[in-house]
Amino acid sequence: MSILLETKGLTKKYKNGIALNHVSIQVEKGTVYGLLGPNGAGKSTLLKIITRSIPKSSGEVIFENHPLNANDVKNIGAIIEHPAIYPNLTAYENLEVITTLLNIDRKKMDEVLMMVSLTNTGKKLAKEFSLGMKQRLGIAMALINSPALLILDEPTNGLDPLGIQELRELIKMLSGQGITIILSSHILSEVGQIADRIGIINKGLLRYEGQNTNPSKLENLFMEIVRKDVMNND
Questions:
Q1: Residue 230: pLDDT band by 50, 70, 90 thresholds?
Q2: What top-level branch of life does the organism fall under (predicted)?
Q3: Which of 130, 139, 26, 122 has its CA nearest to residue 84?
Q4: Cβ contact 204:42 at 8 Å
Q5: Which of 37, 130, 160, 163 could form an S-S bond across to 41 if both were Cys, CB 3.0 to 4.6 Å?
């Protein structure tokens, strides 16, 4: 088992409580890691620490066998909460901004637009895109730097069934190309169809981690964990 990313005892404290409490996960290279949990469970907090968007209180993030540093972030593509799209620019122009800032070969733009099926949008502005198209553009922007790790936080939020299916196929395709993906969601059925490994977070604690060997029983496992936490707090 080759581990790309690992957290050890990761904790995030705020004045009004603990958002993450000693969370330790292992993400294998070339796999899809499904990060599950109810809204407010701590999923986005964990992903923001991994991308160095917010500081940790304690614990470690290990990336490619060394403590995560600022330089490693270049090797991580992420959409957390929503894609950072310029609404008054075309898909091509949105990517052009990033390639200019990061000094990336412009040929990469055509490659990632083809990957996310956005090659025919022409002069259409991003603000005129459907929600599914915006999500795919966000993924293209996250892929432009050829990251080893792609983080998608609740990527199906607000999508219609067709948009969800398209996104699912895209994630499978990217995984097939060897990209390691962390997929965060509260939609169990979607994660169950895609993920190789599952982590379930509730109330800032990692309640379960293991291989996704039986997707049909995922909902029962999830509900059992959440109900147990509710009963323990009563």
A1: low
A2: Bacteria
A3: 139
A4: yes
A5: 37
